[in-house]
Amino acid sequence: MKTNLVFLLVVVFFSKPLLAQDKVNRFDENGKRHGLWQKYYPNTTQLRYQGTFNHGKEIGEFKFYCETCKEQPIALKKFSENDSIAQVTFFTKKGIPISKGQMVGKKRIGKWVYFHKDGKTLLSEENYANGLLEGLKITYYPNQVITQETHYLNGKKNGIEKYYSPQGVLLKQFFYKDDTLQGNAKYYDADGNLIIEGTYKDGRKHGLWRYYKGGKLIKEERFPKPLKKVKND
Questions:
Q1: What predicted TM-score, i.e. pTM, was given to this entire model?
Q2: d(C-alpha 147, C-alpha 138), whole Å
């Protein structure tokens, strides 16, 4: 009798995980993922991700983990049943937010925000179209003063780019075309006084460059500089 009781307890103990396992990683009659899914890193007990499918469609909340994350996910994706757009948040291994925004599949869309190391103070705001940077990207100092403004088109710098001091004074201003410096450039000192101005062509200084001190012109240079003549012996 005692032996039978021990055998019964052993069967119950080992059958529970099997029953639980039967409820995950299942397919519907059409071979599509359905219900709760969990995947682990090879030869470990560390989850790689877990989430729920509704006949092949991701719904609800999905959690993603790194190989050393233990129970702290490094990414959360939240889906609705009627929308393929996911609300996404990325975290450090300590659970501090890094960034958040929207994704369709693996591509970012719309507005994304990034945070300084505290996970609360805004670091930058940028916009995406079909996974590529699009429009104005703004970066902030910890005091929330703008440090940089850059315009993008199809994932590349296009248009004006500005840099500011922690006090909000404009320090540099450039123009880009397809990630290459092109057009007028100006540099200012910490008080906002113009100190250098010139032009870039295909990423290189071109034409007349002027240098100022105390509001007065002190030097001029032309680019490209002429090659120095080599004297023959």
A1: 0.84
A2: 8
